[in-house]
Amino acid sequence: MLHPSPERFRAALGRFATGVTIVTTRAADGAPVGLTVNSFNSVSLQPPLVLWSLDVRSRALPVFAHTTHWAVHVLGAQQQALAERFARRDVDRWAGVPWTPSADGVPLLPGCAAVLECRARSRYPEGDHVILVGEVLRCQHDDGAGVLLYHGGRLFTAPPPP
Fold first, then answer.
1. How many domains does the chain have?
2. Which domain holds residue 126?
3. Domain-embedded: residue 42
């Protein structure tokens, strides 16, 4: 086995297929904030907890470090363009993107395979990321939706389960 250089480690992690999500919240001034995330996991069923991680260099970190609520949107197979848009830094991610506020004011995106509305619970700095844990307050899903996957640095779609 070889020493895990950052490049080799990233390549090894790329062999693990993940779902693709967009995590959203509101800044203190009310502006919507969101970014594409593939580091999303379940933590606990009782209580219902999920986690995701954010690079410490992210411009969104100050917002997510202080917000009380956020939402995780599991992207459907038809939402590749949205995933790519929210992964970019050089665009207004929200221009022309429809959304509605949750009961807690968090931007909710339509047409997702699943949406989990969360109350921020814990934050753990680890290495070059911060792990954010949230308690799921409300969730919904579409049994008939295909999903977007990330594998080997590329996006793929998977059909709905039979």
1. 1
2. 16-151
3. yes
Task: Report if residue 95 sits inside a domain.
Answer: yes
Q: 68-94 burial, b if ≥16 CB within 10 A, otherwise e?
A: ebbbbbbbbbebeebbebbbeeeeebb
What phi and psi values does residue 40 have, to the nearest 5 degrees? Answer: -110, 135
Alpha carbons within 13 angstroms on the beta-carbon side of residue 85 total 13
| Residue 54 resides in a domain | yes
pTM above 0.90, yes or no: yes
**Is residue 144 assigned to a domain?**
yes
Check which CATH number belongs to the domain holding 113 and give it: 2.30.110.10
Q: What is the pLDDT of residues 101-114, one digit of tens each?
A: 999 999 999 999 99
Q: How far apart are CA 156 and CA 132, in angstroms?
A: 26
Q: What is the 3-state secondary structure (H, E, C) of 9-27?
A: HHHHHCCCCEECEEEEEEC
Average pLDDT across the chain, whole number: 95
Which band of pLDDT confidence, cut at 50, 70 and 90, is reported for residue 53?
A: very high
> What are the structure tokens assigned to 71, written together?
């939402």
